[in-house]
Amino acid sequence: MSGILEGKIIAVSGGTKGVGYGVALESAKQGANVAIGGRDEESARELIARIERDCGRKGLFVRTDLAKAADCRNLIEQTVARFGRLDGFVNYAGILPAATLEDASEKMYDDVFAINMKAPFFCAQRAVAAMRESGGGSLVFVGSAHAYGGSEDRAVYACSKGALLTLVRHIAKNYAPCRIRANWITMGWVGTQGELALRAEQGRDLRWLEEAAAASVPMGRLLTVEDHVPGILYLLSDQSSMVTGTELHVTGGFIP
Ligand SMILES: NC(=O)c1ccc[n+]([C@@H]2O[C@H](COP(=O)([O-])OP(=O)(O)OC[C@H]3O[C@@H](n4cnc5c(N)ncnc54)[C@H](OP(=O)(O)O)[C@@H]3O)[C@@H](O)[C@H]2O)c1
Question: Residue 146: CB within 6 Å of ligand 1?
Fold first, then answer.
């Protein structure tokens, strides 16, 4: 039986962890060959083994430090060099440190904007060029409810995601005639490695996270990787071929 991404070539930034890992693996199950950008070689090797052994698809790990624009471009270029074209790009990678507007340092600002905004911009720059050559494609950007104003303790993060949302709208508005689509997914609250590391710094653990989510997410629980993967796969697939510029909220009823 063919999957909804049969024959497609997908690249995922941050494919080594969390939702990025889930999207990469499920894309392969749905028929795609998949390139993964990130730094964690152990996780990438394990994922590629699963893609090739369990899904019978091809996987490629491109070691990528998203702080460097050259690495961002290289992720896309290596994907095209190996697989011949690019049909879909998912920008999952991001960092989410906590600080208020009054406390945020210049270094935090530069680090967050480098990974959350500059990296998606330069990945998208190459991805759009590749997709233009092959007649179209789909970009999916993982965003956050903080983009719409943000909590008091996420000033830089909120601004970086707000800028990212503008990038999504910019691509959607200007590249539709090239059949290049860009969509945004508002990711809900998930106990990812990044989120758990942030909470550990605050002396909190997974149990605290689950209780806090049960109290504050309208649908009453922390979200999961699996809650997000189907929407992203839909946006990558031809089922959404006329969908661009959308903001899909996977937030358990929290309306930003
Ligand atoms: N967790 C939540 O509740 C939540 C809510 C809304 C939105 N989000 C969004 O979800 C995304 C991931 O956040 P997370 O920390 O929660 O997830 P995570 O599962 O811990 O994943 C973070 C990913 O980012 C990659 N990454 C970070 N810095 C990188 C760099 N310099 N170069 C290459 N890759 C880098 C990591 O790859 P390596 O480890 O391989 O370097 C990893 O794959 C972000 O876009 C964030 O805004 C998260």
Answer: no
Expressed in angstroms and rounded, the spacing between residue 64 Cα and the centre of ligand 1 is 13
Give per-residue pLDDT as tens, 24-53: 999 999 999 999 999 999 999 999 999 999
Give the class (CATH, top level) of 9-188+223-246.
alpha beta
Instruction: Output the residue whose Cα is nearest ligand 1's atom 17.
Output: 194
Under a CB-based contact definition with an 8 Å cutoff, are residues 14 and 38 in contact? yes
Closest CA to 223 of 195, 186, 250: 250
Q: 130-187 pLDDT, tens per residue? A: 999 999 999 999 999 999 999 999 999 999 999 999 999 999 999 999 999 999 999 9
Write down the residue that tokens 């909804």 correspond to: 4
- The answer, yes or no, to whether any atom of ligand 1 lies below 6 A from the CB of 213, is no
Q: H or E element: which one contains 172?
A: helix 155-175
pTM for this model (two decimals):
0.98
Provide the β-strand partners of residue 138.
88, 181
Tell me the CA–centroid distance for residue 1 and ligand 1, in Å: 33
The residue type at 63:
R
Listed by start position, the domains of the chain span 9-188+223-246
